[in-house]
Amino acid sequence: MLKSKKIVSMLLAMVMVLSIGCLSASAEEIEDLAIENAINFVDTTFSDFADPESYKEDLIATNADELKKFIQDKRKIMNLKQELSGRKIVLQSREILDTKVTKLDDSYEVLLNINYIYIDGDLKSSLNAGYKIILGKDDLNEFKVIAAMSNDLSSGSLINATIAQSAADLNLEFQLNTQTKASYDYNTVEENIKNYFKDVQKENDGLIAEATEDNKSVQSFHTFTSSERAGMRTYQDNWWNGFNPAYANFTDWGRGLH
Length: 258
Known about the structure:
Elements: H1 2-46, H2 65-85, E1 89-103, E2 108-120, E3 123-137, E4 143-150, H3 153-158, H4 173-176, H5 186-213, H6 226-239
């Protein structure tokens, strides 16, 4: 009798261990699926390099209106900058550098860091972009994107603060909370960008006129190559309204201690 009880106890213990193992495997599979859905969303719908024809609204939660508007604004601002600069951005390759998933109360937070190699006009460029994406399950138990933010080119143009933020620091509050307003106004951003390119054109016209006036000067001077000019113009266009996070920000230095 005692031997039978021991056998039963051992069997119960084995069942419990197997059950825990199954639960762990299931949780890991769900997290992998969340990452897979997040990457698919970025590649097809959210990144600066997503083909408009690949847009997949079925990846987005039906009530994620602020996210849908933000995606539209990202696309409009990218098209505007390419139109005004006369340079088309063409993706060459992308590499996922790292991923991280965190289980929240009733959703999952996925952080992605992706490196893009692309052609900007005639210049080869690269971008390390961070993404924060919140996914939840719908009535059919399928993952849908609830909110998303990035520090990529278009997001930085719309929300300047994202430029210096890591993926983990990106703020999704205006998409998650209906009481919170977006921290940007598209019309204002568009007007600022148009004014910037007008100023650039005036500056270029002035430099051409000045060079024409002074063309009789015998003083030697250095002229930049077309590649150098393209590189400087690209850098200026991307960071005119913020700081390149690759370098330190010394804005408040020299103002004394606060």
